[in-house]
């Protein structure tokens, strides 16, 4: 059995980042999505815990730099996709990480895994606007997935209703996701921002 299964949803360049595509050229958004996913794969290499990394994608031929296995996305939406794939992976713990987190690093991922392991609880990391950037949980915990707008509020209410133990990491810098041009402007103020995002902003003069 896998100790920690890390799942990164990559639902395809035509599905992901629809809001960002309203603000930036589509070819730029596609490039950023790939680079952010590859950056996440790179930092996961250094996570000290035993793990297997999976990319959840509708495209079985997707090619990204990094170490991962492809899981075929068979759902109509992200929540049904994750539900289906969870049932097929036998792991002690599951960690679902959104790919569009420009400031996440290895220690952040290790913090989530450590809390899941030691607290025997669900760990939910909030993004801005009450979204969900990361969620981790032991295999024995069953609850509906409700990713989308205001998802952290919905998850927390479900945990309470089901009387499941949980830990919430409130919005922190590393949990900010890249959904809009406004997010991009905030993210590039951070000294840890990946160079390709700074270059994107400067080159295209989005200010």
Account of the protein in words:
Helix content is 36%, strand content 20%. The protein is of the alpha/beta class and 207 residues long. It has one domain (2-204): Spore Coat Polysaccharide Biosynthesis Protein SpsA, Chain A (Alpha-Beta Complex). The protein has a seven-stranded mixed β-sheet with strand order 3-2-1-4-6-5-7, sandwiched between helices. The model is unreliable at 202-207 (pLDDT under 50).
Question: Short description, anyone?
Answer:
The chain has 207 residues and is α/β, with parallel strands linked by helices. 36% of the residues lie in helices and 20% in strands.
Architecture blueprint of SSEs:
Blueprint: E1 2-9, H1 18-21, H2 26-44, E2 52-57, E3 69-72, H3 78-86, E4 91-97, H4 106-119, E5 122-126, E6 132-138, H5 151-162, E7 166-169, H6 181-187, H7 195-204
Parallel strand pairs: 1-2, 1-4, 2-3, 5-7
Antiparallel strand pairs: 4-6, 5-6
């Amino acid at each position: 059995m896998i100790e920690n299964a890390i799942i990164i949803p990559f639902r395809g360049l035509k599905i992901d980042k629809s809001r960002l595509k309203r603000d930036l050229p589509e070819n730029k958004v596609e490039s950023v999505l790939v680079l952010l996913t590859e950056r996440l794969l790179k930092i996961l290499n250094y996570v000290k815990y035993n793990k297997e990394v999976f990319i959840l994608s509708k495209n079985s031929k997707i090619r990204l730099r990094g170490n991962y296995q492809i899981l075929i996305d068979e759902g109509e939406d992200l929540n049904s996709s994750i539900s289906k794939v969870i049932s097929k992976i036998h792991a002690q713990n599951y960690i679902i990480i959104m790919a569009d987190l420009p400031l996440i690093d290895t220690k952040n991922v290790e913090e989530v895994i450590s809390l899941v392991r030691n607290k025997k609880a669900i760990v939910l990391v909030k993004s801005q606007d009450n979204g969900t950037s990361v969620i981790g949980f032991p295999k024995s915990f069953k609850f509906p997935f409700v990713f989308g707008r205001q998802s952290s509020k919905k998850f927390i209410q479900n945990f309470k209703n089901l009387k499941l133990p949980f830990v919430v990491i409130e919005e922190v810098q590393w949990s900010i996701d890249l959904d809009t041009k406004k997010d991009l402007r905030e993210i590039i103020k951070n000294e840890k921002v990946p160079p390709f995002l700074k270059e994107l902003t400067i080159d295209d003069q989005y200010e």
